[in-house]
């Protein structure tokens, strides 16, 4: 027999459980948004901006891409075990992101770099305020997913009913909510990519200064720039993808070569025979004309007469 006191306790407990339900549900939809923004953002960087992903970038993609699909499918199907599935990918992905950050920011970790082919893992395409890099953005997305899953696991253990039976908005079903969120994120990045492609201006290059000791970057600096921006694909001595032996370097002026580096070259360009995209500015943010002049002259020196 239920006493009046027990009835009162049950009435007080129901709103608390409902609030935990709502929090868990909203948390997983936030995780869905984070995963799809990270997925579309990585594709935007590689396919629109031409930033070639390194080996550890691919490891993080391997975790994030299926994670985005699993979150969408789990929410649409109202699977209460979704947090467990998501954590199995989010945790390894976060660890990969942290290791990648250490490779970029801690000099002692450079000796452990495993990116011997392709783009160097220690290279930064993006470095805002000295700490916002691509792996940092990926880590943020993974942490959001992990936090949401922990919240959802706590709610699932305390509530017997399926907290995913509703969408984040009462008037929309989970399937409709997931579809709208995914469509909105994909459309946003697709529109942004189309706008960027349509507005790409011809690169403005300053006049090439005469060769002299006053040129901004020294040969040593040019060699270091080549190692950071070019060697990942073209090899430490230009022996990788055709560069030093390419006819383009012999037939074009310094100004034309600099213009090519500034603009980059897509993988589908008719004059690109490597099948891999060359990112604009070699993927280096803020590179100056003086640095590019020194780099081109360094390439010609490597090529020889």
From TrEMBL:
<dbReference type="GO" id="GO:0006457">
    <property type="term" value="P:protein folding"/>
</dbReference>
<dbReference type="GO" id="GO:0015035">
    <property type="term" value="F:protein-disulfide reductase activity"/>
</dbReference>
<keyword id="KW-1133">Transmembrane helix</keyword>
<keyword id="KW-0676">Redox-active center</keyword>
<keyword id="KW-0349">Heme</keyword>
<dbReference type="GO" id="GO:0009055">
    <property type="term" value="F:electron transfer activity"/>
</dbReference>
<dbReference type="GO" id="GO:0020037">
    <property type="term" value="F:heme binding"/>
</dbReference>
<dbReference type="InterPro" id="IPR023380">
    <property type="entry name" value="DsbB-like_sf"/>
</dbReference>
<keyword id="KW-0813">Transport</keyword>
<keyword id="KW-0812">Transmembrane</keyword>
<dbReference type="InterPro" id="IPR036909">
    <property type="entry name" value="Cyt_c-like_dom_sf"/>
</dbReference>
<keyword id="KW-1015">Disulfide bond</keyword>
<dbReference type="Pfam" id="PF02600">
    <property type="entry name" value="DsbB"/>
</dbReference>
<protein>
    <recommendedName>
        <fullName>Cytochrome c domain-containing protein</fullName>
    </recommendedName>
</protein>
<keyword id="KW-0408">Iron</keyword>
<dbReference type="InterPro" id="IPR003752">
    <property type="entry name" value="DiS_bond_form_DsbB/BdbC"/>
</dbReference>
<keyword id="KW-0479">Metal-binding</keyword>
<dbReference type="GO" id="GO:0046872">
    <property type="term" value="F:metal ion binding"/>
</dbReference>
<dbReference type="InterPro" id="IPR012187">
    <property type="entry name" value="Disulphide_bond_form_BdbC"/>
</dbReference>
<feature type="transmembrane region" description="Helical">
    <location>
        <begin position="58"/>
        <end position="77"/>
    </location>
</feature>
<feature type="transmembrane region" description="Helical">
    <location>
        <begin position="26"/>
        <end position="46"/>
    </location>
</feature>
<keyword id="KW-0249">Electron transport</keyword>
<feature type="transmembrane region" description="Helical">
    <location>
        <begin position="136"/>
        <end position="155"/>
    </location>
</feature>
<keyword id="KW-0472">Membrane</keyword>
<dbReference type="InterPro" id="IPR009056">
    <property type="entry name" value="Cyt_c-like_dom"/>
</dbReference>
<feature type="domain" description="Cytochrome c">
    <location>
        <begin position="217"/>
        <end position="303"/>
    </location>
</feature>
<keyword id="KW-0143">Chaperone</keyword>
<feature type="transmembrane region" description="Helical">
    <location>
        <begin position="167"/>
        <end position="191"/>
    </location>
</feature>
<comment type="similarity">
    <text>Belongs to the DsbB family. BdbC subfamily.</text>
</comment>
<dbReference type="GO" id="GO:0016020">
    <property type="term" value="C:membrane"/>
</dbReference>
<keyword id="KW-0560">Oxidoreductase</keyword>
<dbReference type="Pfam" id="PF13442">
    <property type="entry name" value="Cytochrome_CBB3"/>
</dbReference>
<feature type="transmembrane region" description="Helical">
    <location>
        <begin position="84"/>
        <end position="102"/>
    </location>
</feature>
